[in-house]
Specification:
By secondary structure, the protein is mostly helical. Helices cover 76% and strands 1% of the residues. Helix 2 (27-45) packs antiparallel against helix 9. The chain is globular, with a radius of gyration of 25 Å.
């Protein structure tokens, strides 16, 4: 009798929650589907370093927000054109001027390699909490974290002239770096492709959908760039220069388009991580000491990345300065 009452109470709760009648014969099947989703997402982030003292998912998300704030702060401190020109002047003194197109390609490629190496290092640090954790899973998880690109581009509005060049470089690097995360988005989408999933897992499903959309949009943008470069122009080098080197007089699209593109991935990653963590609160359990070591690593990486792009990148805004001075001279002459 008690089991019958319990079954009726459970049936009533399903009816009241969904607002529509649900057949009791599907209860077991729906429950097993949710279990499959939980288990599938569990294996994506499994890190049982100290499950008895596992930090709550909200604390892990707070650490991720701290990792987003770090590059934003270093960009404000080291990303201004004035500071970059001073560093480039030192490089010119010993190495002379460099070809802008080639150096920008080398700069972006080197920055991507720095980010990848640091991501693998982060995976190794996480693996110290649980030696049974798969290194590839930890590395892929870190590839899929929210990047601070839209925050940096929003902060560019503080002084567009000073910070636009640095923010566009970071956007180009993050476009290439972030494409790896499509593997995590695709796996999460496959796991959550069920009729009934736990409510937190619906966040991961929404995030994976946005992440895949962002990847497809990125492929489209890169295809358009390739078409523009190889469209039969008599001087394709000029087109490459226009795409890689920021223009002396940027338009509003130079800020809005990269911001919208990076914000799509930014939202997808937050939804993905929230869904993964809240679906299995004890699946990802790094120690606070581990998170601090990761913070120290990425502080070093951000500083190294900025100086690398300054030393290996373009010579600066000297040409644009000359152009602006000539504009001022012509204006004063016409007056």
């Amino acid at each position: 009798m008690r089991s019958l009452v319990a079954w009726l109470e459970h049936f009533a709760s399903i009816f009241s929650a969904s607002g529509a009648w649900t057949s009791p014969f599907h209860l077991k099947r729906d429950s097993s589907a949710e279990i499959r989703v939980r288990n599938g997402l569990w294996h994506l982030i499994k890190l049982n370093g100290n499950a008895d003292k596992c930090m709550p998912p909200s604390v892990v998300l707070l650490w991720l927000a701290t990792y987003c704030a770090l590059p934003a702060i270093t960009s404000l401190a080291l990303g201004s054109s004035t500071f970059r020109r001073r560093v480039v002047a030192i490089r010119r003194r010993y190495c002379g001027s460099l070809d802008e197109t080639h150096t920008m390609i080398v700069s972006i490629a080197g920055s991507v390699l720095i980010q990848i190496a640091a991501t693998v290092g982060t995976g190794r640090i996480l693996q110290t909490n649980d030696h049974s954790a798969i290194l590839g899973s930890m590395v892929l998880l870190w590839f899929s974290r929210p990047l601070a690109t839209p925050i940096i581009q929003w902060l560019t509005l503080v002084n567009v002239t000073e910070y636009l060049e640095n923010s566009l470089e970071i956007a180009r690097v993050d476009i290439i770096y972030g494409m790896v995360s499509v593997a995590m988005f695709g796996t999460a989408a496959k796991v959550t492709n069920q009729k009934h999933v736990p409510h937190p897992a619906q966040l991961a499903r929404a995030g994976s959908a946005l992440g895949i959309l962002h990847f497809l949009f990125t492929i489209f943008v890169l295809a358009v760039f390739a078409f523009v470069i190889y469209s039969g122009n008599a001087e394709p080098r000029l087109r490459v220069t226009d795409l890689i080197i920021p223009r002396s007089k940027p338009s509003i699209t130079d800020i809005i388009l990269p911001f919208c593109h990076s914000s799509l991935r930014f939202t997808a990653c937050w939804l993905l991580f929230a869904g993964l963590l809240f679906t299995n609160p004890t699946a990802f359990c790094p120690e606070p000491r581990t998170m601090k070591r990761i913070l120290a690593l990425w502080l070093f990486v951000e500083v190294l990345d900025h100086f690398w792009r300054m030393l290996a990148g373009r010579d600066g805004n000297d040409n644009s300065d000359v152009a602006s001075n000539s504009d001022v001279t012509s204006d004063s002459g016409s007056d």
